TrEMBL record:
SUPFAM superfamilies: ARM repeat (SSF48371). This is MIF4G domain-containing protein. GO terms for molecular function: RNA binding. Pfam families: MIF4G (PF02854). Residues 30-213 form the MIF4G domain.
Length: 313
């Protein structure tokens, strides 16, 4: 590489106004978000949220939504933990919470229509816990329950049972009469000859769970009840809403006001995290790490085609 080309390359890797810098910064942001979400567990939800807030997650809102939904889809048993993280993010950045809700509803509808049971049940579980965490209004789950019980199959009944186990405790507090109506429909199906015995047995078990006050399926575990009701923003979405998943946000988009927008986010971050020395130190370390990773990424991706970096993986 000639000295002139080398100088141009180095300048591009540090000049925020260049397409190259912004593309590499986005790739670094995606790696950071995935890394933090991967480390999530019951005991560190607030800590992970703070680490995410140190980075411009409004710019990377699609990356946040994708990382959390993908992780939950792979490990549905940790759904309450992912929902707790979403509740914290939503309390500070409702636009990110709304995007996640839209994508969950859209993915659930698509999976249900395509008979993709595994994804359907995973998204149903996440939907239930978004309602438990007051990120999403309960109306959508009532609409879903009526839809799957109206033209029922064994699979749709199982979906309804799973949904009721996960958020039945919450629904019994906020809309008890609606819950009575749903259980009346299930009661009528107990001896429906078109259902197999296993499904009927599952209905019987659900009635036992209900009689026990859903004790084995708490709406929110005590260590995951992290946001005060007054601080939470609840999104009013319906099952039949278009719920545009905004897939265009997956695309890399050059920002002519990149530096100004980053400065705006830093001000927002201060109101969330405060401006103590520890946060300053962590922020500076993060900034240095970002710059070194961007420079390294430039070397690693020098032979990649532009389209490889345009989309989220």
């Amino acid at each position: 590489m000639s000295a002139e080309k080398h100088f141009h390359s180095e300048a591009s890797s540090t000049d925020v106004s260049t397409n190259e810098y912004q593309r590499l910064a986005r790739g670094n942001l995606e790696k950071t978000i995935k890394h933090q979400v991967k480390k999530l567990k019951n005991s560190n939800v607030p800590k992970i949220a703070r680490k995410l807030f140190k980075h411009n997650i409004t710019r990377g809102r699609s990356l946040v939504a994708k990382a959390i939904i993908d992780a939950q889809n792979e490990s549905p048993r940790f759904t309450p933990v992912y929902a707790a993280l979403i509740s914290i993010i939503n309390s500070k950045f409702p636009q990110i919470g709304q995007l996640i809700c839209k994508r969950v509803i859209s993915s659930l509808r698509n999976a249900y229509m395509a008979d993709e049971n595994e994804e359907c049940f995973a998204m149903t579980k996440l939907l239930a816990h978004l309602i438990n965490q007051r990120v999403l209004n309960y109306l959508v789950v009532i609409q879903l329950l009526h839809a799957v019980l109206e033209n029922y199959t064994d699979d749709s009944i199982k979906l309804a049972i799973g949904l009721l186990k996960e958020c039945g405790q919450h629904l019994s507090k906020v809309i008890p009469q609606e819950l009575v109506s749903v259980f009346a429909k299930l009661d009528n199906l107990l001896y429906e000859p078109s259902l197999n015995k296993h499904t009927q047995d599952m209905i019987q078990v659900l009635f036992t769970v209900r009689r026990d006050g859903f004790e084995t399926y708490p709406s929110i575990q005590s260590d995951l009840d992290l946001i005060d009701t007054n601080d939470q923003y609840t999104h009013m979405l319906e099952l039949l809403d278009l719920c545009d998943p905004e897939k265009h946000l997956h695309d890399f988009l050059y920002d002519a006001e990149y530096e100004a927008n980053e400065d705006k986010y830093k001000e927002t971050r201060k109101t969330i995290l405060g401006d103590n020395d520890d946060d300053k130190l962590s922020s500076n370390a993060s900034s240095n790490e970002d710059q070194s990773m961007i420079t390294a990424a430039k070397i690693d991706t020098s032979s990649s085609s532009p389209s490889d970096n345009d989309k989220e993986n």
